[in-house]
Each structure stands twice: as C-alpha cells, then as structure tokens.
Write a structure and sequence with these properties.
This protein is an alpha/beta fold and about 130 residues long. Helix content is about 15%, strand content about 35%. The longest helix has 12 residues, at about 15-25.
Length: about 130
C-alpha cells in the first residue's frame, strides 16, 4: 500500500458557520464543500487554499456535543512566509486568543507561535527553514 500524502486533518467543532467563518477570515482558507453525513447527524466542511493535491482541513459538527479532549486534534500547523507579519496580524484580532506571547525560534531557525480557534483548538503558524 502506497502512502501518498496527508489527506486532511479533522477538527470537531460546535458551530459550523462560526468555525468556517473563522478559518476563512483568520487563516485565509476557502470552504470547498459542505455536506451532511449519511448518518443524518454529522455535518462536514472541507477547507483549503485552492491548490491541486493539497491537504485539507475537515470541520466536523455533531459528532460529540461536548467536544471531548480525546477526540480533539491537538493542533494544526499552517506554513507562512513571514512569521513576524502574521504574529502582528493575529495580535491585532480582538476575537483571537494567543497562546504564545512571543514567537518561538527552534534550534534550526524555524519559527512558530500558537493561538486558539473558536472551540479551543490550537492553531500554529510556522515559518520553516527546511
């Protein structure tokens, strides 16, 4: 069996519209498709940057109302080309809560910081030197 790419990362959310709007406005993703699961309970949304073959973000509403810790993704990381510009931009958004109060630089020179999404999920913006 060949492994080709990371297909998508699923994050459980409480309110699909709020979360789609957040990822569009704050991250710059575009909602590619929304659909109702065949079980009639779960709603799904797939978001991306519009590039062929990209890894997508899947938002899932209705799986568990309480969003249990064991089911939530710890974080999702997005590559950026100017970490300082992004840090200033996120700092200026009153509805976004930073986790890190400064940018962290790894020994290899890559830099990152974390902030919360609308349901407490961790989002990382990452500028790589690789």
């Amino acid at each position: 069996m060949a492994r080709i790419k990371l297909e998508h990362v699923g994050i459980m959310v409480k309110d699909m519209e709020t979360s789609v709007r957040f990822y569009e406005e704050v991250i710059g993703l575009t909602c590619k498709e929304t659909l109702d699961h065949t079980n009639g309970v779960i709603k799904l949304a797939f978001l991306g940057f519009g590039r062929q073959g990209e890894t997508e973000l899947e938002l899932i509403q209705g799986y568990h109302d309480g969003l249990p810790q064991e089911g939530k993704v710890h974080h999702v990381a997005f590559t950026v080309d100017d970490i300082e510009e992004e840090f200033k931009r996120i700092q200026g958004l009153s509805h976004v809560r930073l986790i890190d109060q400064e940018i962290t630089t790894l020994p290899n020179g890559s830099r990152y910081f974390f902030f919360h999404g609308p349901d407490g999920e961790w989002i990382e913006l990452f500028q790589s030197t690789r």
